[in-house]
Amino acid sequence: MHDHGNGDGRPVASDASDASDASGHGADRPVDHGDGVHEFLSLERELTLFLRRARASQGEMAREVHPDLESAAYGLLVRLDECGRQRATELAAYIGVGKATMSRQLRALEELGLVAREPDPADGRAWLVHLTDEGRGRVTSVREARRARYVRQLAHWDQDEVAELARLLHQLNSGMEKHAQG
Fold first, then answer.
1. How many angstroms separate the CA atoms of 50 and 41, rounded?
2. 6 pLDDT band (50/70/90 cuts)?
3. How far apart are CA 164 and CA 171, in angstroms?
4. Closest to 113 measured CA to CA, from 88, 136, 80
5. Do 27 and 21 touch, CB atoms closer than 8 A?
6. What DSSP assignment string belongs to the chain?
7. Main-chain dihedrals φ then ψ at residue 62, nearest 5 degrees
């Protein structure tokens, strides 16, 4: 792959010799003893950088949806946008938080007018959460703008590289999900 930009005008390090570790200190290129250590150290470094940028981006997208929206709640809105009505327990399991945290986040989203609850027809004791029209419109707008940024940032990539990156990320996420469940 190429040395790709990160969207803020700075190149992303593609070689361990010019990358920094999570503490911001320069990292020397590890000696490759053929045991895969170098590859996993490089993976750790690149994922750390990617996740740091993803968290910052999620905060920006949350504020674009609503100035008072917590960063963590953005993922809930995306999940509801993609999957439709969900029980709070399903959302909590998917996001990986407890019932109390999920209840607090959903209350805040309701107060902002982004989600609503309705009785679950399959179980009168349970509630289904869904995006309001306002919530759906705001999330759709932010997601479309994000996709447009990806297109601009990756315009110099071959479409096969983009597809391969998506495939590998899906494989990574699926493997991690199976490991967490097992």
1. 14
2. very low
3. 10
4. 136
5. yes
6. ----B-SSSSBPP-SGGG-B-TTS-B-PPPP--SSSHHHHHHHHHHHHHHHHHHHHHHHHHHHHH-TT--HHHHHHHHHHHHH-SEEHHHHHHHHT--HHHHHHHHHHHHHTTSEEEEEETTEEEEEEEEE-HHHHHHHHHHHHHHHHHHHHHTTTS-HHHHHHHHHHHHHHHHHHHHHHH-
7. -60, -45
> Distance between CA 136 and CA 80 in Å, rounded?
9
**What are 124-172's pLDDT values in tens digits?**
888 999 999 999 999 999 999 999 999 999 999 999 999 999 999 999 9
Question: Per-residue pLDDT tens for 19-63?
Answer: 444 444 444 555 555 677 889 999 999 999 999 999 999 999 999
Please check whether residue 71 is in contact with residue 59, taking contact to mean a CB–CB distance below 8 angstroms: yes
Q: Which two tokens stand for residue 73?
A: 């709640």
Can you give the length of the chain in residues? 182
Which residues, at least 6 apart from 113, have a Cβ–Cβ distance to it below 8 Å?
132, 134, 135
Bridge pairing between strands 86-87 and 115-120: unpaired
